[in-house]
UniProtKB/TrEMBL annotation:
The protein's name: Putative snRNP Sm-like protein
Annotated InterPro entries: Lsm7/SmG-like, LSM_dom_sf, Sm, Sm_dom_euk/arc, snRNP_Sm-like_arc
Protein family per UniProt: Belongs to the snRNP Sm proteins family.
Record-linked Pfam families: LSM (PF01423)
Keyword Ribonucleoprotein recorded: yes
Length: 84
């Protein structure tokens, strides 16, 4: 049986590597948040600082810090300039 590759990215590893980097978070309700990932937990609750909010593609405001509840998250992506 072939040996599994050890460089497979696991979800929590990707989150850990994204702390203090820009992320884009898409959530239910056609909302998205972008900013610096400050922290997370095992439920994917996210703390994002310097966050911008977009609803239906329209910029709705900026916040110093927000908490995104993990069960609303559709995807999390590092921003283009912060690839790891």
């Amino acid at each position: 049986m072939p040996k599994q590759q050890s460089n497979i990215a696991r979800p929590m590893d990707v989150l850990r590597g994204s702390v203090d980097h820009n992320v884009l978070v898409d959530v239910k309700g056609n909302r998205a948040y972008s900013g610096i990932l400050e922290g997370y937990d095992i439920y994917m609750n996210l703390v994002i600082k310097n966050a911008g909010e977009t609803i239906h593609g329209e910029n709705k405001g900026n916040y110093d810090r927000i908490l995104v509840r993990g069960d609303n998250v559709i995807f999390i992506s590092p921003s283009r300039g912060d690839s790891q």
